[in-house]
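User: Please predict the structure of the protein below. I'd like the answer in structure-token form so I can feed it into my own downstream comparison script.

Assistant: Understood. Taking the following sequence of 149 residues as input:
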Amino acid sequence: MMGMTPFTYGQDPTIIKLNELQRLIAEDNGTVKVINFWATWCAPCIKELPYLEKIHKENSNVEVLLISLDLDLDSDPEKVYKFVERKGLTSKVFLLNEKDPNKWINSIDKNWSGALPATLIINSKTGKRKFIEQQLKEGELETLIDQVH
């Protein structure tokens, strides 16, 4: 068919800059946002993706945003597009187009060393937030989401 994207799941990852990411984080859309920082080369990131996808599919009050940091090391987004398609990811995927994470990681969370994976959980109504800089284990995400309610 003409005009069809190559993404079977209708997923078209968007390349964004830091100011757009900050707008996504700050926006009050009445949900709990789970903002996960990951990369295709990060094995622990890939291990926790199923937990993020599960939350996205099972909980309509939770918005999952997957922020890929792949462009920092490789300016070609093709690898991420292929990865998203192969894994059939349904959460929203963004590619952050910013070099030198040391310059901007503090604006996401002052406790972030820059290690991946990292997950920011925010109640967009109240602004209550949790930040975790390690691989999530099964069930851990649900507990963290409860803590920001």
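That's the full token string. The longest strand covers residues 32-38.
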